[in-house]
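EI: anyone free to look at a 326-residue chain?
SC: sure, send it
EI:
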Amino acid sequence: SCNAVMVALADSGNIAESREMFDKMAQRDVASWNSMVSAYAQSGDCLEASSFFSRMPVVNVVSWTALLSGLSRTGQLQEAKFLFDKMPERNIVSWNALITANAQAGDARAARALFDRIPARDSVSWNSIFPAYTRTGMLEEARRLFQSVPCPNSITWTSMLFGYAEAGDIDQARKIFLAMDRDAGSWNALIAAYGQGNDLESARLVFEKMAQWNIRSWTSMFLACSQMAHFEETRRIFDGMPERDLVSVELGNSFISMYAKCGSFENAKRHFDAMEERDSVSWTAMITADVQSGNRERALQLFVDMIHQGVDPHDVTFLGVLSACA
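SC: here you go
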């Protein structure tokens, strides 16, 4: 059907072609409209998704949920809450989307209140609530919740592993790893845990024991090396990494931070200038590096350039700018 083709085009990133097909349709049903709302929402263009939603002759729970999911995914929590409260009907995806949004925002209380109100929970509901506790260090509450999960899956176990790792409890993270059915995600999580604990040797041993590496395995190992400013080892991992262009921004940001840790600030700037794509982390890392090196004028100019290029600064960026002005 035309709707199926539109969805396929949007899923492959061809939203313009999907939109063109929609515009040429002689007759559109609710599924056609939902396809466009979902396409724009998934791409992060919630303004256009909202525009389509507001023009729909008839909306259903899929329409509401598509827009809600987009708002939640892009961190527009207040807008997502407002939409959720207006929904005449909610499905499990709606509930899970708002729980995830609150968890990502670090609001464990709001996430748990929603979780407790769900008429019927699925595995996604359980996996959505865990980050609310693990990311905010509320590990005892996360542990109690974990014990009540009907059938924990690899995502649930890995969420607990990450929680202990981020809290610095590497021993408990390793116990979780040994107790679970391990997949590539859990192996990668343990590598990241050792990296956060500055235990490069253990991270390397886990990496070498893996039956098969994926791009996330390489990235976890790369980040472990770069966090400890092991330049030669970082370069070796980077050179051996397949498909490194798929995570170029993340890796580029790590190189900037690593150069800064080593005091090689001009190399950090050269790497920053060579990056084809930059995000707010890239700009913030370079601004912070210039502040550390005493090059405050350049740090302030970078901030101005960042704003002019439409990149939104965050709290750490402003801290760097305030330090440059001090």
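EI: The mean pLDDT is 85.
SC: 👍
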